[in-house]
Amino acid sequence: MIKEAIGKAVLKRDLTEREMEEVMREITTGSATASQIASFITALRMKGETPEEITAAAKIIKERASGINIGDDTVCLDREEITVERETILSTTRKSTEGTNIFNISTATALVLAAGGLKLAKYVKKSVFPLCGCADVVEALGVHLDLTSTQLERCFKVLGICFLQEHLVQNGLKHIIDLRKKIGIRTIFNLLDPLINPTRAKVQVLGVYEPGLTETMALVLKNLGIKKGLVVYGEDTLDEMSITGKTKVTEFKDGGIRSYFIEPEDFGIKKGKLIEIQGGTKEQNAKIILDVLKGDRGAKRDIVILNAAAAFMIAGRAKDFNEGIELANQSIDSGKALHALERLIEFTNEERSFLRSAHEVEMG
């Protein structure tokens, strides 16, 4: 089927849902060759992926991916982390050494939300040095990630938050991960990654890398059974709510979809500059997150507050963005967000010691 699908995509003809499912089964089971996969996803990118194609592909990927049993009252903040992805950096470069190297906003946001009463299981990946992925900064903060699924389920049950490593989720999909790194351009897999959702979350906040994708991905999320969510595109920060300019938001709930634009000034937040939210190494980004959670003021805190406010609002904890901002500020100023991190560090270290002990017994 993949040969026929390549031909259709080259001619800019859309695939049916059934055709896309057949192709994705060939891709995920290893039936398709690397050159066929590369040709297909490149042609699909040039044609432009439809909501139906993305939905069909996501369903097959989700079938293959591993999950954890933590219920459906969860908020999903997963994203592709395009700010450490090659094409994004090249396309946004201002000088030879600059790109969209912002700090790990969604990681800090997750801790603020957990402290505010939301339940989150976040899917994290490592990046290629010197860039800093979510998994890199979480480990730099002192959180152990190399836990079993059972331990992660216990972590979520006790703390309301856990971080899931890529290898626990991408079951048998390593050949696709390796191919994506070699291609170096955005493809449908950049759209699929944050849709894997190893939990059964019914609320999602999703960041995308192009403004024209917000409505498309809102439709995809609805097709996948997400009950309500936000799909956002922010100026400069791209896949986050932005404080450096406008953010396009597509909101869906109660069966309807609507798009609108917001600016930081709409909520009394000072407009910032990109350089004010830039990060660096995993150690530098860990320090930034710690400083935000300890109450430091400035642009970095502001962008975390705005992103947390959006999640509080769509999850129903706040009636609007303004009330969400109040909740996010309370989460930090009360010390609860920092305490959430401290508890997570303590819990995962304890669980890691149990894992080591079991391994030592097995080896002994």
Structural class: alpha/beta
Helix content: 40-55%
Low-confidence stretches: 82-100, 358-364
Q: Span between N and C termini?
A: 51 Å
The proportion of strand residues reads 5-15%
Task: Evaluate the radius of gyration.
Answer: 20 Å
Commentary on this structure:
There is one protein chain. With 364 residues, this protein is of the alpha/beta class. It folds into 2 domains: 47 residues, Transferase, Pyrimidine Nucleoside Phosphorylase, Chain C (Transferase, Pyrimidine Nucleoside Phosphorylase, Chain A, domain 3); 267 residues, Nucleoside phosphorylase/phosphoribosyltransferase catalytic domain (Pyrimidine Nucleoside Phosphorylase, Chain A, domain 2). The chain is built from 16 helices and 7 strands. The strands form 2 sheets. A 5-stranded mixed sheet has the order 1-4-5-6-7, sandwiched between helices. Helix 12 links the parallel strand 4 and strand 5. Helix 7 packs across helix 13. The chain starts with a helix and ends with a helix.
